[in-house]
Amino acid sequence: EAIILPIEGKGLWSTLYGYIALKQKPDTNTILGLTFYQHGETPGLGGEVDNPLWKAQWPGKLAFSTDKKTGVPTKSPNISVVKGGAKPGDPYGIDGLSGATITGRGVHHLVRFWLGDLGFGPYITQFRAEGK
């Protein structure tokens, strides 16, 4: 039911290691969750990547833009960690971490990297093609 992909990237003080889960059908576009199992970010600031309330924002968000004509997800990730907070109803926006701009920016970049062409993007594209 899910594709679970390992992800890693730089925060402020450390490399964050984790997983992102995408709903397998119909289109590997809906995020089921994001978690980090190891990092050295500052407790109460960047360490808030472990906060269940922050992690609860990820399920149901869309990882990729959708072609308006076909409804098919694009190849380029569109999920964003937004400093100052995502707009209500934004299907791609996750609220940034208050007081942890660099960690939030790191999570933004690492998720987009691993879902993009230099990460698992080609695998996701092939998986979609074979699933149809």
What does this structure look like?
The protein is an alpha+beta fold. 23% of the residues lie in helices and 30% in strands. The chain has three helices and seven strands. The chain has helices at 52-55, 101-115, 121-131, and strands at 2-10, 15-23, 31-38, 64-66, 73-77, 80-82, 93-95. The strands form three sheets. A three-stranded antiparallel β-sheet has the order 1-2-3. It is globular, with a radius of gyration of 14 Å. The two termini are 15 Å apart. The mean pLDDT is 91.
**Can you give the helix content as a percent range?**
10-25%
Largest sheet: 3 strands, antiparallel
Average pLDDT level: 91
Order of helices and strands: EEEHEEEEHH
User: What Rg do the Cα atoms give?
Assistant: 14 Å
The secondary-structure class comes to alpha+beta
Strand content: 25-35%
Distance between the termini: 15 Å
Extract low-pLDDT stretches: none
User: Helical stretch count?
Assistant: 3
Strand order of the largest sheet: 1-2-3
Inertia-based shape: globular
List the helices and strands and how they pair.
Elements: E1 2-10, E2 15-23, E3 31-38, H1 52-55, E4 64-66, E5 73-77, E6 80-82, E7 93-95, H2 101-115, H3 121-131
Parallel strand pairs: 6-7
Antiparallel strand pairs: 1-2, 2-3, 4-5
What's the short story on this structure?
The protein has 132 residues and is α+β, with helices and mostly antiparallel strands. It has three helices and seven strands, in the order βββαββββαα. It has a three-stranded antiparallel sheet.
